[in-house]
Design brief:
The chain has 123 residues and is mostly beta strands. It contains no helices and ten strands. Strand 5 (46-51) and strand 6 (58-60) form a beta hairpin.
Length: 123
């Protein structure tokens, strides 16, 4: 059974950087697209970024384009989200989740959700 575990969150000042990791166990990521999502208090969960199983296709929310980069290392069964130029509005719990092969814009199309990692951007 696939399990995903997020790590790398924390407190960072505006303009700073963090790298989140999504480590998989119980199943190979070779056949799975992985999405990163976030949920701020009082808001719905939203798609931040997604990478296809091959790594050949990546998607980003408009709010993070040019600042965030998603990547994957299938040998390590891990997907990363490099977050640069962080803003206070990036503050949220960040989750990763999986679906077969290709990305989707719909949160509900993903499964095997991790427990999340808190990212707080504040001075």
């Amino acid at each position: 059974q696939l399990q995903l575990v997020e790590s790398g969150g924390g407190l960072v000042q505006p303009g700073g950087s963090l790298r989140l990791s999504c480590a998989a166990s119980g199943f190979t990521l070779d056949y799975l697209a992985i999405g990163w999502f976030r949920q701020a208090p009082g808001k719905e969960r939203e798609v931040v970024s997604c990478i296809s199983s091959s790594g050949g296709s990546t998607n980003y929310a408009d709010s993070v384009k040019g600042r965030f980069t998603i990547s994957r290392d299938n040998a390590k069964n891990t997907v990363y989200l490099q977050m640069n130029s962080l803003k206070p509005e990036d503050t949220a719990i960040y989750y990763c989740a999986a679906r077969g092969y290709y990305c989707s814009d719909y949160v509900s199309f993903f499964g095997s959700w991790g427990q999340g990692t808190q990212v707080t951007v504040s001075s």
